[in-house]
Design the sequence.
């Protein structure tokens, strides 16, 4: 990754972190995003827990999905959006309670011209609690807007 791209990511860090928090209302914090890797933290609140007062599996999956998407996006030096194509998650333990910190760590393991293949792990206090494999498509924002406009106009004809 060039120094220029590193500078670009630094300028986007706050925007991405804000989008994670505002769009998902979960309180995720971007810890790092570079060279095909990403880390996200989440301090567990009551709304993250299920009826047994442990972290809900859906919260785990959103955290892992978001982290892999950011790892994918970190490999493109332009403002991008990402889409999950496929995701498989294994939950090993439900040990997390309110006030504890979860850390998702993701990396791109392979990429081709169209897709990014990632894996991610979810950690709490040195214990792995879940693992995910995922496939992602990354779109340049301009390309995505052009596709949406083309579909909109095609629909009207």
Sequence:
């Amino acid at each position: 990754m060039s120094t220029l791209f590193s500078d670009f990511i630094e300028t986007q860090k706050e925007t991405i972190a804000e989008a994670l928090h505002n769009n998902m209302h979960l309180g995720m914090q971007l810890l790092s995003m570079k060279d095909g890797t990403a880390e996200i933290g989440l301090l567990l609140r009551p709304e993250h827990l299920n009826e047994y007062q442990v972290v809900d599996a859906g919260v785990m999956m959103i955290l892992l999905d978001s982290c892999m998407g950011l790892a994918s996006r970190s490999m493109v030096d332009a403002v991008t959006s990402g889409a999950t194509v496929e995701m498989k998650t294994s939950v090993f333990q439900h040990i997390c309670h309110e006030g504890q910190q979860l850390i998702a760590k993701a990396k791109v393991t392979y990429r081709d011209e169209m897709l990014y293949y990632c894996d991610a792990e979810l950690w709490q206090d040195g214990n792995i609690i879940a693992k995910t494999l995922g496939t992602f498509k990354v779109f340049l924002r301009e390309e995505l807007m052009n596709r949406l406009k083309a579909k909109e106009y095609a629909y009207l004809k």
Remarks:
- The first strand starts at residue 29 and ends at 34.
- DSSP finds three helices and six strands in the chain.
- Residues 1-5 have pLDDT under 50 and may be disordered.
